[in-house]
Design brief:
The strands form seven sheets. Strands 2, 4, 5, 7, 9, 10 and 11 form a seven-stranded mixed beta sheet that branches. Strands 12-15-18-24-20-21 form a six-stranded antiparallel beta sheet, with no helix packed on it. Strands 13-14-19-23-22 form a five-stranded antiparallel beta sheet, with no helix packed on it. The protein contains no helices and 31 strands. The radius of gyration is 27 Å and the shape is elongated. Strand 9 and strand 10 form a beta hairpin. It has three domains: 124 residues, Immunoglobulins (Immunoglobulin-like), CATH 2.60.40.10; 139 residues, Sandwich (Chondroitinase Ac, Chain A, domain 3); 87 residues, Sandwich (Immunoglobulin-like), CATH 2.60.40.
Length: 364
């Protein structure tokens, strides 16, 4: 006879992510026995009051899946319970069952056949998601920093010219400024602040912000947001400015190239129109470098592209290759004279090529 005693119960509050938890199995017979253990979905008819069947994306893994027990021996079995990083799985009670097979006698039993607290695994998830906080001393050789299923920053070699202490802090959902887009207020999926604030990079840095879609239905879990509408934005102190990004449904993230540290958030931006590719900045003051209007951002450009900038005489002063920020420098890296400059570049909207043109004034 096999008895199980589970140490994961109502008093155990599990956070998002992986948690290693023990439970115990005892040989209640009078002969040695070899047992195979496996978690199974709880029978809906046998759920405890206030508990629900754990979803398939909430993985319960038993490391010691086969144990040998002497008569009356009790052994601790290690298991890992994975809670998806998604608000819809927080603050809930879930129930698993455990099946066991006696390899010695060939008989099979399931904990769900004769339920009781000692024959099931009960878990309660934390009400709030632990905020991401990570730090790393980054060398000029570059590297990665971040947390799985939340955020990741990949810095290439040469993007910084000295060692830099980088810190990423997740912003609480209630503290994220809402975004106005298309006449509607839109809430962020998540947002992060990057330090040292205002750091500028010599090369594009790759930022990935992850979204929860653990049931793979193409919708952000717990929302009515389609994943295809997600874009990266940065907070300029007053409004959210579009960065864009490329959707990766396999890894469930949106990846964008960025050139400076700020607050970055993932928002449902809807489908792109021509207006979404037009810069908001009309005047820049790059010579001041005071953190205000230092550059112009050409939003939502990703992949391979080029931006040509001309003076009012029609002379090309610079071509930006795969770089969507202009600091007022010409092809030789020299600050241009004050005056009006014309930008021109092509974008793809719904499979059609469109040319974006406009004017920006450089004021020293």
């Amino acid at each position: 006879m096999i008895n199980t005693a589970v140490s994961v119960g109502k008093e155990t509050i599990l956070p998002a992510g992986d948690s290693t938890q023990p439970f115990y199995i005892m040989n209640g017979g009078d002969a040695p026995i070899s047992v195979r253990i496996a978690p199974i979905a709880a029978d809906p008819a046998l759920l405890f009051k206030g508990y629900e069947q754990a979803p398939s994306c909430m993985k319960f893994t038993i490391f010691d899946s086969q144990v040998l027990l002497k008569p009356a021996e009790v052994k601790k079995v290690s298991a890992s319970i994975y809670i998806p990083r998604s608000r819809q799985y927080l603050g809930k009670n879930y129930q698993y069952h455990v099946s066991f097979t006696s390899l010695s006698s060939g008989c099979t039993g399931q904990a769900s056949v004769n339920p009781g607290f000692e024959s099931v695994v009960l878990i309660t998830t934390a009400k709030d998601m632990a905020k991401v906080s990570c730090s790393l001393e980054m060398s000029p050789l570059g590297g990665d920093i971040g947390q799985d299923e939340a955020v990741r920053l990949s810095i290439p070699a040469g993007a910084i010219n000295r060692a830099l202490s980088i810190n990423i802090q997740e912003i609480g959902h209630s503290d994220i400024p809402v975004m106005m887009s298309g006449g509607q207020y839109r809430d962020a999926i998540s947002a992060f602040k990057f330090y040292p604030e205002g750091t500028m990079f010599k090369k594009p840095v790759r930022l990935s912000i992850y979204y929860p879609d653990f049931d793979d239905d193409g919708m952000v879990d717990g929302t009515g947001v389609k994943v295809e509408e997600l874009k990266v934005f940065y907070w300029d102190g007053f409004t959210w400015e579009a960065v864009g990004g490329i959707l990766d449904t396999k890894n469930k993230c949106v990846t964008a190239d960025v050139y400076h540290f700020s607050v970055y958030g993932l928002f449902p931006a809807g489908l792109m129109t021509q207006a979404d590719f037009i810069p908001k900045q009309k005047i820049i003051t790059p010579a001041k470098l005071d953190g205000h209007n230092d550059y112009i951002v050409f939003p939502n450009l990703q992949g391979n592209y080029s931006i040509d900038i001309y003076d009012v005489r029609g002379m090309k002063v610079v071509r930006l290759e795969n770089k969507n920020i202009w600091y007022g420098l010409d092809n030789n890296g020299i600050m241009v004279e004050s005056g009006a400059y014309i930008y021109k570049y092509n974008v793809d909207i719904d499979g059609k090529k469109k040319t974006i043109t406009g004017v920006v004034v450089v004021a020293k």
